[in-house]
DNA sequence: CTGAATCCCTGCCGATACTG
DNA sequence: CAGTATCGGCAGGGATTCAG
């Protein structure tokens, strides 16, 4: 959502996207949130941060995740440049999924999310 | 979503939430994503990172944001411990919103999201 | 001024069934 | 094995209107 949150530690000196007054898909914050968006997304990324996985390995690791949503998530992550598909020719079909370099850079991002969550009491519903 | 993303830099040595196999509201990553969730949320936080704001100042800063969604967001952020409300007695009613200490700690989180987004090419639709 | 209540519409996600 | 097709329920969010 277009931030220049605190100081200018790492962003451009005066990025115009830091001053937008409405949600914009070009804002870096929204780009990242869009990549992480959707139920199960971060769990799939977590599995792949531990190493490459085939489709069935992902299904086994996340048993409650349906085929439809799993392939949706893998397609989304492929579109957003987080994940790469690798097809092995022959039979039976074998497809491996691996994080791209960009995908690996989500490690620190998830760590930041984890850290804030551990310092925060659960909201009282 | 329950991660222990890379190594154990800051999390507990063996937090069970790092191994959950389904989305869980107790996972620190999900707690944070829930706090940031929803359209306009991060823009509201950005405004408040720049300093306290009254309701009408927030409306002026984000003109395309409707009353309903603005009060929804402020209620959500209050529930999640990010924002505090301060009513000024008297007339006309004046309400100021300010980040809590926890809210200020979202600065580095948004910075991490910003940084990843700037290193990532926009997906080709 | 600062919201809450209502209505409607859209898009997500889960379940099930089917294909290369 | 690795997906796609289809359907339905439900929640998110925008516009408008009403209230303290």
Automatic annotation (TrEMBL), chains A, B:
Q: Could you tell me what this protein is called? A: Winged helix-turn-helix transcriptional regulator
Q: Which domain of life is it from?
A: Bacteria
**What residues does the HTH hxlR-type domain cover?**
27-125
Sorted UniProt keywords: DNA-binding, Transcription, Transcription regulation
Indicate yes or no for the key word Transferase: no
Q: Where is this region: Disordered?
A: 1-22
User: Which residues, if any, are the signal sequence?
Assistant: none
What lineage is this protein's organism placed in?
Bacteria, Bacillati, Actinomycetota, Actinomycetes, Kitasatosporales
Does Transcription regulation appear among the keywords? Answer: yes
């Amino acid at each position: 959502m277009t931030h220049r949150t605190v100081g200018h530690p790492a962003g451009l000196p005066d990025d115009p996207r830091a001053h937008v007054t409405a949600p914009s898909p070009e804002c870096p914050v929204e780009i990242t949130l869009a990549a992480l968006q959707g139920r199960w997304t971060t769990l799939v990324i977590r599995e792949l941060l531990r190493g490459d996985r085939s489709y069935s390995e992902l299904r086994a690791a996340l048993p409650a995740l349906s085929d439809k949503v799993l392939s949706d998530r893998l397609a989304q992550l492929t579109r957003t440049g987080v994940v790469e598909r690798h097809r092995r020719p022959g039979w039976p079909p074998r497809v491996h999924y691996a994080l791209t370099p960009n995908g690996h850079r989500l490690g620190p991002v998830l760590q930041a999310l984890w850290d804030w969550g551990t310092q925060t009491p659960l909201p009282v519903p």
